[in-house]
């Protein structure tokens, strides 16, 4: 009898704690973009391949996010179907490329759909796989980070780092809202390397300040904004 009670108590605890992680509720979007030459550094050596034609910041994903965390894999009975985004593939290959060599072309998109797209689908604007990818591509056009930085005279350069505050300033002036920049350290460089950024958006895609994001952002005075060439050869 006692034994059963304990099993029951443990089960209840387990289900209880699980439930709060499994909440499918969310409050806003994080639109995550990555800088391919730097994102490649996170891929084991020799396993990164930036597809031909990719020259700008690329989409990582559009992620429903809540004030407490983020939901994921919201609907396992809504599988990714490649044929539904066939008409977008040519554009996805440039703006939302899979940089993992030797993985199927669709695997990145499949992952993003299952993990995040199925959560976004509670919104009418995102209630199909096609809409999720199409909208994300439009956002990529609306928030072209490469262009914004270029307009301010900030170009990729591996001979010298940029002042982080210049980059932040350029983005904030253009977007009128705060964004989050992420970096990683690499032994080949004396300063952190700019790898990715988040823009935050309401459910109906109005840009908002990204103040709630708790992940560690770029720190320090200088960061490297690496050019495309050279990038894949670094260990
Ligand atoms: C891809 O796979 C092939 C065959 O398994 C292998 O020879 C090649 O080295 C792999 N390329 C990368 C970049 O991992
Ligand atoms: C999950 O996906 C299926 C298939 O598209 C759909 O019919 C169902 O309504 C979805 N469930 C929820 C809770 O959104």
Q: How many domain units?
A: 1
The oligomeric status of these chains comes to: single chain
Instruction: Tell me the number of helical segments per DSSP (H or I, 4 or more residues long).
Output: 7
Fourth-level CATH superfamily? Ribonuclease T2-like
Sheet-strand content, in percent, reads 15-25%
CATH fold naming: Ribonuclease Rh, Chain A
- The Rg value, from CA coordinates, equals 20 Å
Could you say which structural class the secondary elements and strand pairing correspond to?
alpha+beta
Write out the distinct hetero groups bound to the structure.
2-acetamido-2-deoxy-beta-D-glucopyranose
Write the layout of secondary structure elements.
Elements: H1 2-21, E1 28-34, H2 36-39, E2 58-65, H3 89-95, H4 107-120, H5 129-142, H6 145-151, E3 157-163, H7 164-175, E4 180-184, E5 193-202, E6 207-208, E7 222-225
Antiparallel strand pairs: 1-2, 1-5, 3-7, 4-5, 5-6
The protein binds 2-acetamido-2-deoxy-beta-D-glucopyranose (NAG) (2 copies).
Output the keywords:
235 residues, Ribonuclease Rh, Chain A, binds 2-acetamido-2-deoxy-beta-D-glucopyranose, five-stranded antiparallel sheet, 18% strand
């Amino acid at each position: 009898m006692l034994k059963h009670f304990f099993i029951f108590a443990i089960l209840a605890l387990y289900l209880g704690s699980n439930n709060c992680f499994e909440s499918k509720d969310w409050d806003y979007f994080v639109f995550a973009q990555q800088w391919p030459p730097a994102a490649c550094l996170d891929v084991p050596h020799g396993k990164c391949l930036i597809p031909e034609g990719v020259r700008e910041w690329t989409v990582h994903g559009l992620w429903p996010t809540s004030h407490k965390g983020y939901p994921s894999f919201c609907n396992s009975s809504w599988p990714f179907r490649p044929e539904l985004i066939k008409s977008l593939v040519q554009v996805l290959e440039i703006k939302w490329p899979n940089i993992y060599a030797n993985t199927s072309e669709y695997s990145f998109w499949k992952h993003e759909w299952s993990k995040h797209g199925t959560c976004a689908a509670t919104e009418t604007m995102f209630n199909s796989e096609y809409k999720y990818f199409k909208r994300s591509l439009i956002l990529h056009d609306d928030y072209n980070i490469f262009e914004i930085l270029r307009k301010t005279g900030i170009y990729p350069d591996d001979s010298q780092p940029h002042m982080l505050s210049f980059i932040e300033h350029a983005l904030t002036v253009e977007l009128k809202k705060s964004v989050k920049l992420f970096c990683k350290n690499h032994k080949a460089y004396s300063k952190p390397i700019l790898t990715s950024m988040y823009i935050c958006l309401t459910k109906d895609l109005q840009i908002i300040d990204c103040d709630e994001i708790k992940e560690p952002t770029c720190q320090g005075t200088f960061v490297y904004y690496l050019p495309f060439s050279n990038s894949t050869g670094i260990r």
